Amino acid sequence: MDRMVQDFDDKPALPLWLGVAAALAMMVHLYLIFMWVPTEATMGIVQRLFYFHVPAAVVQFTACFVGGIAAILYLVKRDYRYDDLSLAANETVVVFGMVNIGLGMLWAKPIWGIWWTWDARLTSSFLLLFLYAAYLVIRPAAPVEHRGMVCAVVCILGMADVPLVYLSNRLFRTQHPSPVLGGGPDSGLAPKMLATLFFGMFTMLLLWWCVLKVRRRVARLERAAADLTRRAHELDDLRRY
Amino acid sequence: MENLSWLFWGYAVAWLLIFGYLFWIAQKERTLRRKIAELQETIEDRWKQKKG
Question: Phi-psi category of A9—alpha, beta or left, where left has phi over 0 and alpha has psi -120 to 50?
Fold first, then answer.
């Protein structure tokens, strides 16, 4: 019972300082995007979507690896805390993946004239999002005794797709622009743009860390509710006999 | 200032998704806490009935 009491304690899931730090960083990031960074010469003001689009992708990739490694650790150690972390991280893959793809589409329409095209980058990104959306559907449907294995397999597939997404515009000709960082002699960003991008990545990772902690606590509560439901049923059965 | 509406909608969609998700988590936590409190009460009642 002690373990269960720990599972639904009243301690805040998120330390106050972390929430405040994330909110402040986000405000600074928005100031940098809208007031500080210069407007890009070719695309104009809509290019400012870049400072949210790329950090969302960075968070999505990080969440894939955190969720995947946690799923594997759960299989090895059978500690439910890893399973909770994996679920929380994998759910954020879907949320930040939707932010990434949504922003990309709203950027593509005025610049490319189309919302979407099935090039290597966009297709592999869609596949990644689809895989993790499938994970969220499969997970509750999988039998409890096989759930860890099923989830780990999906996570491993997801982690394998991340390098493919990252390298897709280096390996193939794509509608998506070639990489601006480490993409050869013609790539690169103005110093203010680079600073805004890196600050955006830091901010988005901080926001994700907060979301992850809150979601992980809800996963613990779900487990506690399931445990209590099972105990209530067991007591019912005992009463009958 | 061309394409300003695309910029607006881009950030609007991003924040709606993030805040929508946070709101959904908060709702879920509230529901679960209520359910746990009810289950604890039920279990305590059944223990009392069993002992009595």
Answer: beta
Q: Which residues of A touch B8 (CB under 8 A)?
A: none
* pTM tops 0.80, yes or no: yes
Asked, for residue A8, whether it belongs to a domain, the answer is: no
CB A103 within 8 A of CB B14: yes
A88 in helix, strand or coil?
helix
pLDDT (0 to 100) of residue A238: 74
Report yes or no on A6 lying in a domain.
Answer: no
CATH number (domain holding residue A162): 1.20.120
Cβ pair A214:B25 closer than 8 A: yes
> Residue A32's domain spans which residues?
15-179+188-240
Domain count along chain A: 1
pLDDT in tens, A69-121: 999 999 999 898 999 999 999 999 999 999 999 999 999 999 999 999 999 99
Which residues of chain B lie closer than 8 angstroms to A215, CB-CB?
A: 25
> What value of ipTM does the predicted structure carry?
0.89
Q: How far apart are CA A6 and CA A220, in angstroms?
A: 9
